Amino acid sequence: MVFALMEINSSNDLLPNITLGFNLYDTCYNEVRSLMGATWILSGKKKGVSNFNCDKDHMPLAIVGDMPSKASVPLARILGLTRYPQISYGSGLPLLSDKIQFPSFLRTIHNVDYEWFAIAQLVRFFNWTWVGMIYSDNDFGRSGAQLFTREMDINGGCIAFQETLPLIRSTLSIYRIIGVIKKSRAALIVLFCTIENLASLMEQASFHNITDKVWVGTSGWSITTYFPRTEILTTLNGSLAIAVQNGKIPGFKEFLYSIHPSIFPDDPYMKTFWENAFHCVWPGNDAYNNTSPALLKNGTVWCTGKERLDSINTNIYEVYDFKYTYKVVHNAVFAVAHSLHQMKNCVPGKGPFKNGSCADIYNHQPWQLLHYIRNIDFNNTAGKRIYFDENGEAPMFLDILNWQLFPNGSNQYVYIGSYDAGLKGKELSIQLNKILWNGGHGQVPVSVCSDPCPKGYRRAALQGQKICCFDCLPCSEGEILNPFDDSECLKCPEDKWPDSRKEDCLPKLIQFLSYDEALGSSLACISIVFCLLTFSVFCLFIIKRKTPIVKANNRELSYLLLLSLKFDFLCPLVFIGRPNNLICMIRQVLFAVFFSLCISVILAKTITVVMIFSATNPDSNLKTLVGFRIPVYIVPVCTMIQIILCIIWLTRAAPFADFNMAAEIGIIVIECNGGSRVLFACVLGYMGLLATISLSVAFLARKLPDTFNETKFITFSMLVFASVWVTFIPAYLSTKGKQTVAVEIFAILSSSAGLLVCIFFPKCYIILLHPEMNSREYITRKKC
């Protein structure tokens, strides 16, 4: 305060040619002494008389103080009666914001309610959800506990336990609280206690070696001052504290180093301070006039006045860490000075009072100065903006401190962050790399009732327990954890699937049988190889077309059968690749028509053999049908029926590309939907009917005598064909995704290969390896 007044008095810009003075009164943290000081100041006499002013010429303009709220409350009630300006630098009680009860009270310290919000934000920042709470049995503690509990509920945290610390020391209460602390899983304990209540609790906590807890306290207590024992400091190592914002006042350090008893000869404390600081006796100090010889005999020396304050350890003579000095006292004095400056510069007719009048700086009413103080707005010497809101409170900034105890026994509060109530959404700022937790590790302590659920698990509340205690249950298949509520899972859209952590729905993989994969390319190669093999047989039959084995059983039908088989082998190429509506229609129609053509030719060849042998039998009833050339009409008629069925199928309910979401987990299978199941069954049923007739006729004619009779081979081929497609049905129904298409392609290839091998390979064997059997002489000789 003295330094601030010296700055103001030496300033040419602030109150020029006006000197401010001051009166100091020590209330000793006592409400009664605070009221006595107020009476003395207001009346002008040490033995004050209420409602009388005996020294109007030396009436103080405003009161800066008091520090404790319990002293400021009665003081503010009395000063409020006459609207006498009062600016406190340490009273944070929320009640003092009530301008109806305390109309002339202002403060440069923050409302302690903000500390609860700051601590709640701090707890949320470190993800501490299971928190113990101890509070003093007074308005400060109960109010703070209530507000903090509400903030914890809003942030999703829980109070593990809350204990009241009695104002009068109670050993039983302290033992009970220590027992609760030791049993609780909560690693964090928030303290809303005054320092005089907390000391005995900390002594017992250190005695029981409770060093695995993180203590978070308000600005109402200071470890360095009140906890000198090393055991207590060890217990509190790594703890966090909310404190008034620290800062530097330009020139203040130099001022503190420059003070000297010769500069302040009338200061009753200066010589005593000097003697304590340098362990010497100041000559002429009345306090030691009678005892200094004895002190000198014990090794104490005389003070010379040449001692230097900058040689004292800063732990003893601190010139940097003056939180109340920087934040509040300095600002409070300058607020009064700036208000007086505005009052002095008031222009008559433009003043703030009735009819634009101004107040006289040398003779004004207290409420007039109060008006200016309420509306003050200036930057202090550190460049910070200072003003008062509607509740008479200055801008609120808080420091977050970490208490650190070092191996060499030294200790200090370390600044690790700040809380600025004016930055909505970004109030808290923390520097994690500066924090040193108890034990010297950098890992943030965990304080939870139940460990966080793994990815993809939701919280399930336990009956009768708080919401912070829960079980973890996995999200069902196809669900992700709700990002806004970890107690429920959300089902992914049909075209999406959860990622491995079940945190996000990702687009499902598109699956179809493609040429790029081994299965698709292998089937395509097999298809082409068999097609070339069929074409080679066809070429061989063309070359040997005049030989008996080719002529036998209608060589034109053999050519047609080979061509149809070649197209059958090419059909799988349409089944490979990404399906679309056109491809789906083409693949099913080609498959149905070419296989019907193939089976129709086999049926025609079988009937041809039967009719030829019937013609040689005089008693056969089929002899009359030989002239009608029935086999020639079988192929087009039977194939045309299938074509008509396919046309009806395409016009009524054509096959189409379908996105099957349920075939495989997490995969979208693009497949061909058959459209009308009835018509699809008709197409397949007709093919089955032709195959059954062909097998029956071939089976009946298998023993007909002939050198090149192929009915027995047709019988085998149709048995293979039927076996493949009968086996195909359960295999098709038991597979999913692209494997279904692969099974269908395999059935097409294997059934077509069965026909090719069983019908044509015996003939190729004779043509290539036994040409002597493929001659008229061999046939004639065999018949003979």
Automatic annotation (TrEMBL):
MF terms in GO: G protein-coupled receptor activity
Keywords for the protein's UniProt record, in alphabetical order: Cell membrane, G-protein coupled receptor, Glycoprotein, Membrane, Receptor, Signal, Transducer, Transmembrane, Transmembrane helix
Bilayer-spanning residue ranges: 518-543, 559-577, 589-614, 626-650, 678-701, 713-733, 745-768
Main location per the UniProt record: membrane
GO cellular component: plasma membrane
Keyword field contains Signal: yes
Domain G-protein coupled receptors family 3 profile: start-end pairs: 519-783
Highest taxon, organism lineage: Eukaryota
Segments forming a coiled coil: none
Keyword Transmembrane helix belongs to the record: yes
The protein's name in its UniProt record: LOW QUALITY PROTEIN: extracellular calcium-sensing receptor
PANTHER family: CALCIUM-SENSING RECEPTOR-RELATED (PTHR24061), EXTRACELLULAR CALCIUM-SENSING RECEPTOR-LIKE (PTHR24061:SF576)
Membrane topology classification: Multi-pass membrane protein
InterPro entries cross-referenced by the UniProt entry: ANF_lig-bd_rcpt (IPR001828), GPCR_3 (IPR000337), GPCR_3_9-Cys_dom (IPR011500), GPCR_3_9-Cys_sf (IPR038550), GPCR_3_C (IPR017978), GPCR_3_Ca_sens_rcpt-rel (IPR000068), GPCR_3_CS (IPR017979), GPCR_3_vmron_rcpt_2 (IPR004073)
Matching PROSITE patterns: G_PROTEIN_RECEP_F3_3, G_PROTEIN_RECEP_F3_4
Compartments reported by the entry: Cell membrane
